[in-house]
Amino acid sequence: MMKDTISAALAVLVGGAVVQGLLAWWSLPVGAALIALLFGFRPKGALLGGFLGGFLLWAGYAAVLNANNDGLLSSQIGVLLGGLGSTALVAATGLFGGLFAGLGAWAGSLARAGASSEA
């Protein structure tokens, strides 16, 4: 379980960064599903690892972008969203990335489990 979680997190982090550099935001769950399908991660490890990898990818990228513009954009968006701070917005971005990647990886691992049980 722990091995699947760490392996899935690293694979989604690296694979997601490559895929997101080429395609739109929705490529993260698709890429995570393909990674889990190809590497055969167990569902629970894929879900947790996908969440962790997606969270680190999106939160890290949001933090870098926030630091590059001195927090100007996040402060303006925070006002629109009820006074959220920069850190809360970076964490929320990571949460969404984690959910997308975790659910994508989970679906990919379930697809592999379903395909192997039919064979």
Question: Which terms would index this structure?
Answer:
119 residues; mainly alpha; transmembrane helix
Characterise the protein shown here.
There is one protein chain. 86% of the residues lie in helices and 0% in strands. The chain has 5 helices and no strands. It has one domain (2-118). The chain is an all-alpha fold and 119 residues long. The protein is elongated and about 50 Å long. 41% of the residues are buried.
Structure in a nutshell:
With 119 residues, the chain is mostly helical. 86% of the residues lie in helices and 0% in strands.
Major β-sheet profile: none
Helix content: over 70%
Please mark out the parts with pLDDT under 50 across 5 or more consecutive residues, or reply none.
none
Shape: elongated
Share in β-strands: under 5%
Instruction: Please give the alpha-carbon distance between the first and last residues.
Output: 24 Å
Number of strands: 0
Number of helices: 5
The overall pLDDT average reads 91
Task: Spell the H/E element sequence.
Answer: HHHHH
Q: Find the structural class using helix and strand composition.
A: mainly alpha
Rounded Rg: 16 Å
Q: Please, how many domains? A: 1
Keywords: Membrane, Transmembrane, Transmembrane helix
Transmembrane segments: 6-39, 46-65, 77-103
